[in-house]
Each structure stands twice: as C-alpha cells, then as structure tokens.
Prior knowledge:
Blueprint: H1 2-33, H2 45-50, H3 53-69, H4 80-93, H5 102-109, H6 136-141, H7 144-160, H8 173-186, H9 195-200
Amino acid sequence: MLQGIRNRFLTSTVVLISILGFGFGGKAQTATSSAGYREKVQYNGRWWLAANPGERGGLLSGISDCMTWEARKRGYEATAEQLADPITKFYETQPRSRELSVLMVWQRVNPVAKRKPSSEDKWADTWTNAHWYMNNDWWFQLAETEQRGYVEGYLWCVRTQVDGPHERYSRLSDFYWSKIDAFVKSHPKLGDQALAKTLSRFKDPGQ
C-alpha cells in the first residue's frame, strides 16, 4: 500500500514539474520572440522614477523627434534638459499620478504641447533641417543609456502616436539600437544624416 502511494506521489510530481517547466519555457520563448510593440513597457511614473537619468533624457528626445517630424504635432520642441526636472518633480510630488504616461505629464508641465494648432500658426521650428540636431554625429556623443532611451521613445511614438500609414518596426528596441550603433560607427561620413533616417534603414521589409 505504501509503495502504491509512493508511486502515485512520484508520478504526480513528475507531471507537475513537466507542466511548470513547459509553462516557464513557453513564457520565456514568447518574450524573446515577441514583436517590439509587444514589449508592453509602460512609460509612466513608475518607469520614469526607476530609469537611469540618461535613459529618461533619451526617451524625451526620441519622443520629441517623432512627435514633431513624424506625427507632425506642434509644441514638442522642448529639450530633455528643459523637461526632465519638471517631470521628475511631478511624479515625486504626486504619487497617485504615477500611472500617467510620460507624454501626458509632458503636456501638463509644458502646456503648449497639448495646444491645438490654428490656421494662423507658423511652424515653430527654427532649424534648417528636419529632425534638428538629432543626427548620427549627435548619437556618437551620447552615452549608451541615452541612445537606448532615444530608440525607445522614438519607437513608442511611431507605434502609438502617428496617424495614418507609417513605417513599421516589429523588432525589440535592442535590435534597432544595435543596428543604429553599428551603422553610425561604420559610416563616419554620414554624420549629418538624421537618426530617424538611419533607423528607417531597418524598418520592416516590404514598405
């Protein structure tokens, strides 16, 4: 009788381990093969307060670049240096608002960002080239955390804020960071090429 109980216990244990092993293995495989927009990173207050300052600044730069030149929305010309401290202060002093996205807080601390343009508005940009100074030379000067933040911010914006047909990027953000970094280092003569154009080289095929 004891032997029978022991055998049933061992059988149940093996089955349970097999189920758990499959579950964990399947989950890990899904995470590594998911499309970039399935990373499910919530760029909100919890992310912001846990992120490296360099990654925060890079995220703001990427969002600004995309919102202005791809989404064609006005009021997002502020630099990361101008925005980082106000956004941090907002999240630190209003813990109940930490579920708000970085973009929503951006609009709160910099109200011009949510203003609807009128027919009398003039394009606020004073730079001669699209995408401002955010080119390959600029990338080369950034710390890796800022570079990665830029890619995250730009991709998030393209995937969620650009209306109508737009370029698709279905890989994880790490993939695009490595591609851009390798391209910039191997093409020093293209330093004045916009980062957005460099990124565009690695968009999904067939576009």
